[in-house]
Amino acid sequence: MGVSWTTEQQQVIDLRNRNILVSAAAGSGKTAVLVERIVKIITDKNHPVDIDHLLIVTFTNAAAAEMRERIGNAIEKALDEQPGDEHLLRQLTLIHNAQITTIDSFCLYVVRNHFHEIDLEPNFRIGDEGELKLLREDVLGRVLEQNYEEPSEAFSDFVEGYASGRTDAALNEMILQLYEFSRSYPWPEKWLDSFVGIYRIENREELDCAEWLAPLTENIRFVLKDCEQLLKQALAVTQQDDGPDMYEKAVQSDLEKYESLSKLTSFCELSVALSDIKYDRLASSRGFEGDPDKLELVKSLREQAKDVVKKLCKQYFFCSPEMMIEQLERTEPMLEEVVRLTKQFADEFAAAKRRKNLVDFHDVEHFALQILVDEETEKAKKTAEEFRDTFEEIMIDEYQDSNEVQETLLRSISREERGENNIFMVGDVKQSIYRFRLARPELFMKKYDSYSLEESTTQRIDLHKNFRSREEVLTCTNDIFYKIMARSLGNVEYDAEAALYPGASYPAMPVQENPVGEKAAEDEKVSGKQINGFTPEILLADSNDELLEDTELSDKKTLEAKMVAEKIRHLMKTQPVTDKATGELRAARYSDIVILLRSLSGWADSLVEVLNGNGIPAHTVSSTGYFSTVEVQTVLSMLRLLDNPRQDIPMAAVLRSPMAGLTDEELAVLRLEDGSVPFHEAVLELAEGLYEEDGQKEISNPEADQKQGKNADEKPENHIESTAHRKLLEFYKKYRQLRQLVPDTPIHELIEIILCETGYGHYVAAMPAGNRRTANLNMLLEKAAAYEKTSYKGLFHFVRYIDELQKYDVDFGEADMVGENEDVVRIMSIHKSKGLEFPIVIVSGMGKNFNKQDTRSKMVLHPELGIGLDYMDGKLRIKSPTIAKKAIAKQIDLENLGEELRVLYVALTRAKEKLILTGTLKDAPEKLEFFRQQAALHAHSSGKMTGTTAIPYLTRESAAGYLDWILPAVLSYGDKYPVRIVEAAELVLDEVENQLEQNENLTERIVEIEAADTQLVGQLKQRFSQRYPYQTDILRKNKYSVSELKHRAMRERFEAEQEETVPAFLEEPVTPTIPLFIQRQGIVEQEAQNKAQDAGQEAESKAEQKIESNTANRGALRGTAVHRVMECYDFTSEKSVQEQMDAMEKEEKITADMRTLVKERIVADFVSSETGKRMALAQRMGALYREKPFVMGFTEEELERYGFGAGAQMIENEAQTENAQQEIMSENVSQENHMHEEDLTLIQGIIDVFWIEDDGITVLDYKTDRVDTAQELIDRYATQLKLYADALERVFATRKLKVKEILIYSFRLEKLISIE
After folding, report:
1. Strands of 838-843's sheet, edge to edge?
2. 326-340, pLDDT tens digit by residue?
3. Does pTM top 0.70 for this prediction?
């Protein structure tokens, strides 16, 4: 049976050859309609279009993937009906390469294919977020430093005025804010330049005509108009029979003044009129016999109007227009300076990214724009014409979230300039909630207003029907938004055209006796009225209730969470929902419920804690909080300490953590060792002293001594001191060894080693929520591995990298451990819920105030009105907001309120069957009564109780939170929607009842356990205790790199220096096929691990200091450089070492940095040595081999000689094996240790150089390790080189060649070393 489309949907599917704007309401099936339109286009019998000739732009990658899958399924379905159709078969092939993509991906496609048109290197990469922030910080620091070195007068004044205290962080913030904002416009530099001069105003007339002032003037007139309405209401009350008629004259006088004010159109006229306004005194009410409530009402209404005017004067008419103009004139140089600095930073940042071959997503968009559009003429280029020829139609999903850059890009490749309209746009401006990402819903509204609903080349189609929600949910949503969303606030007129109409069919609520008792029945009544089970509800908690004092419910978040928990418990007993599979009503499950929050920060954790505490499984995926978890903070503190031990807080954190295991008392002992120096200095001095003494005398172990009966009379304080010293020494030994690994070890490997050697990884796994904590650490390893791929290297920059992410609130959220199908209540942000739907939606936190921080900073930005700055005089220390800033800030505030309206709309339209709004409200009964009174007055003045008339602009414009909109809106409909104040006593009573119920359930479970069949329990235990008998075969590795031998030698040496055995280094398995250059890099990096020295080492040579500090570690680079030079060196050439290295650099065999790191003298000394001459002779004979990889198979017995046997492997994995597994293994050791002779383990490696002479083979390995004696190198590499020799003898076995010499040449010692 085919799908039945509405008339409007069918129009969307069928209309062609025009620009179409589809205004699709929430749940209107726009995705299904869009897919159907695409399928119809590509299967059109008269004019079929290939799928790759359509450009389909979606908002997210997930949406693009879903769209591609839906289209593919639709094509396959069409093929079932028309098997063998060649056109459809071709579409199935083409769909994989079709442009169904996000705007970012399309821009990247344009740039990848046309990079040469803008002189971009083809191998550019998208920069990591943290890497770009580090680079941004570095570049901005350099820009400001340049200006500090040669400061202009304007720069000095700018710094004096806007820098805070001793830091210029405020300047950084202003420049970066302006830079980021400008990047959402097609030509950022033009956009910045367009606002230079907006403060140049000479007189009142020019002030009145300023573009940035017009919206403020209009807003003031709207507010004054509402004040006029307040006075009209007051006047009407005075004229009633029992009204205070003695006030009529004064109120009439006030009304005339306000009527004259609302007719004024210029800001300066309003300034004069409001500054001169005078009010008549109210007549005496002595002897008044009418209604006293009406007397107070008139006073209240009059005071409201006067307070509004007083607030306007204080905010916007704080000084004369002439003073305002003077402030603007003095602020203009500051505006020009911040624009200049931003442009300078933009240029420097772009250059820095070019040097590193990096781009960010803004760059990709602007590069694509440069390729497609000429900046001067703003006309399409030839490349854009090619795209116009390719794409028959451009389809844009979620069009309301586009910005100016995206709009310009997509219009440039449309055929509008050719007179052919081929853009199809679909979206819902009421769901535009990404203003913080600089989305411009105004683009949608401009077309919404200009496109015709009639047949036209630019046509608008409205999809009103909602196929998601029950009628009760839609009616409530409509009723609320009729009252609060209008053109004056929100830029959308919510009327019959914008309203939602039910299109979904749901089973009705069965009429039956209430099965859950009197309390549940009582809950279903509000104001004595029985409500439908699907009627939306509003639940309020009075945060000022006296019963809440000195209880945990005094916290607003906990109070609301408790109220939500009780509601969910009630829903689980009484609320039916429609089963998706059967279409029938069933009892609600936890997974049917979602709790939506404006922001998860602070609220989600409280909700989860309270719900879980009430036996309700709840889960939230937080987008923040990752860096604040104790396990991540502990590891980061250890990394900071390894980078720089002279830090108090990281030092204390690590010592107090399980890594060192000191208690608070023991830390206090360490602090008291020397109170005259900082904590870190005292600890380091003590640790070094203990370390030196360790070789001379034994540090006592109090626990062991106690077991042996020693120190029986020792004082407690001495016991604490000796324990603290012992723990500190143990930790310091590990710390010294770990710090030696820092210069040459990749960060992710260093973290793995820390977790393994300190045992912290196992400790975390054993903590509560161990799985999540371990996943958090795994995320940190992933971030470290990602960092290694950036242009920054080393631990110092990694610590900066993490600090920058935290500084700019780039958080990742904790690892998510809950699957999609688990029966839990989900808690998510409203933004996260967009595009989703849920049977029961609880929108919480409605009493929270809106965030208005972005209008309170030193600089405010608006895309059309420009830049608003405070007037600052740094020398006189005077600060005052300019009228320009106040005007722009007010407009931003109004647009933010519009965004909040749209966020609320998204939240309410997620519900399919049941909608519940919750919030806390101080003095809730009084506030509700006030809103009811206001609703009655408004209804009386407008002549009707309900309808689509919006509540007063003043009420909407002054809202501090969602309840300031929702309550006046719903109360204007009388008792249509239940608004219930949940009493504190009720919550406390429910808590007691819930506890009793849980105790009863627990008792039942205990009885069931005790009655279980003992024989069955025994069988289950036996089955679950089974273990795989060949565990060693699982643990045994089947491939090693030769460099792992060195790891083993280093580990054994490390362990030998410890008092206690610690877990082995974590070693990653090597992948079977690795490119040569990666193998080379891996070996060199492993070699470089041993080069670290204490701070007193000699400084690097001047030539090496020229290498930038943020390049890769010098040890690793030097090793790479030396190996590369020796690999490319021609021993037979007559050219000098300098000439050969010059040629290598010119031919790009080595880089300039490599060249700098290799000293020509040491290469020349080696070449001229006896060994070098032998190699030259071998090269002439064609018997010199360099950088030769090999892979060899070895039996278990052969591996034992190199420390790779099964026994060694079992020892290595012992720390990671479960205790139960170890027991089984010990029972089967004889069976497990059996290995078949034919079982081979592969060993792979790369031999630096070997050559063949008449009497055998000589193997030589180059080493750049920093060592003091030859024996150190022999100890480290003898095993590795002997394996090389074994491999070579196998390779040349047919020629019966043996290895006669194994040599190491140390470039550090400048010495040839022979291994016996």
Report:
1. 618-620, 825-829, 593-597, 838-843, 911-921, 537-542, 979-982
2. 999 999 999 999 999
3. yes
